[in-house]
Amino acid sequence: MKTVEVQGAGGLSHIHVGEQLQNVKKYLPDVQCIIITDQVVRQYHGAMFPDAPVITIGIGEGIKTLATVEKIFRELIELGADRSTFILGIGGGIVCDITGFVASTYMRGLRFGFVSTTLLSQVDASVGGKNGVNLDAYKNMVGVFCQPEFVICDPLMLPTLPPEEVSNGFAEIVKHGLIADAEMVAFIEDNVEKALSLDKDVISRLVLDSVRLKAGVVQRDEREAGERKKLNFGHTLGHALEKLTGMGHGKAVSIGMVAAAEFSRRRGYLDESDCNRIKSLLDALKLPVSHKESPEKIMDAMFRDKKKQGNHISFVFLNGIGQSVVEKMSFEELEKLL
Ligand SMILES: O=C(O)C(=O)C[C@@H](O)[C@H](O)[C@H](O)COP(=O)(O)O
């Protein structure tokens, strides 16, 4: 097991990569603990949960709403949760996003931690303290920056995931390589088959590299004033597609990264050969690289993006494999490119 630390404004977060759900008890403080999970995680792994009351939510992005948050608040009141209660989220990105938000706001904030059960949440969603929910067509519109006390990334959770969910996680791993680590990209290219079959050594290295890279960025820019914006590479189009089509986050980000690479090429920042390399890698990882949505609908969805400022949007371009830059892009340019 390896531990990576992130020092946030509100405290230190420990990310334990390679630790197991069955050991979570040793990280829990000696106070009342309440678990938040979803129905699928509870069905598969509930027997290993520590002995504590469990609040179970549904699955899918549609559940990431203020209505779910309100329902959980009421359950917490019924369970007698007070300011000393510790909240433990056990699940993927949606469970972690909701749990972190609920814990950070109930009674103005309780202590919390996560056991991260999907590849996507281990390499991205559970790390960095972005917690929140969607509001209507607006993705992650209401939320907070607040670091969990700990995150457990349990490799034994991964083999129970459907292949599609594994591919979703690879989109965020590739993103990390593309924005800041060319060696990581080359490593994935050399190990695609092993990665897809969840080879223990390859996955451990990719999860750890991703967590270290993201933790470093978050440590330097927790509230996304500058460098952290790079973690949004591929997410402008990605979030729009996710909202429009309901496709999985990783799939949408994969298409978004291909488009962002192409936009980078058209601005003269990236070679055509690099664009093709990115496309081939995502395709090999069984991720989609194109879509059929109309530019009008996409533009409409992008207008609802949090990165919008007036007539511009903060956009992440690549200026090489493993190198990125954040620049403003006007909606006029974006429409032309689309
Ligand atoms: O942690 C971040 O910062 C990221 O941007 C990581 C993204 O991969 C992640 O999907 C994040 O939740 C998106 O945040 P948002 O602020 O664009 O909603």
TrEMBL record:
Q: Which cofactor does it need?
A: NAD(+); Co(2+); Zn(2+)
Q: Which InterPro entries match?
A: Dehydroquinate_synthase, DHQ_synth_AroB, DHQ_synth_fam, DHQS/DOIS_N, DHQS_C
Pathway-wise, it operates in:
Metabolic intermediate biosynthesis; chorismate biosynthesis; chorismate from D-erythrose 4-phosphate and phosphoenolpyruvate: step 2/7
Q: Which GO terms describe its biological process?
A: amino acid biosynthetic process; aromatic amino acid family biosynthetic process; chorismate biosynthetic process
Task: Kindly list the GO CC terms recorded for this protein.
Answer: cytoplasm
The UniProt record lists the EC number as 4.2.3.4
Q: Where does NAD(+) bind?
A: 117-118, 130, 139
| Compartment annotation | Cytoplasm
3-dehydroquinate synthase N-terminal domain location is: 55-167
Domain 3-dehydroquinate synthase C-terminal: residue ranges: 169-308
Q: Which domain of life is it from?
A: Bacteria
| Catalytically driven reaction(s) | 7-phospho-2-dehydro-3-deoxy-D-arabino-heptonate = 3-dehydroquinate + phosphate
Q: What is its main location?
A: cytoplasm
Q: What does the record's cofactor remark say about binding?
A: Binds 1 divalent metal cation per subunit. Can use either Co(2+) or Zn(2+).
- Name the family the entry cites: Belongs to the sugar phosphate cyclases superfamily. Dehydroquinate synthase family.
Please give the PANTHER family that the UniProt record associates with this protein.
3-DEHYDROQUINATE SYNTHASE
Q: What is this protein called?
A: 3-dehydroquinate synthase
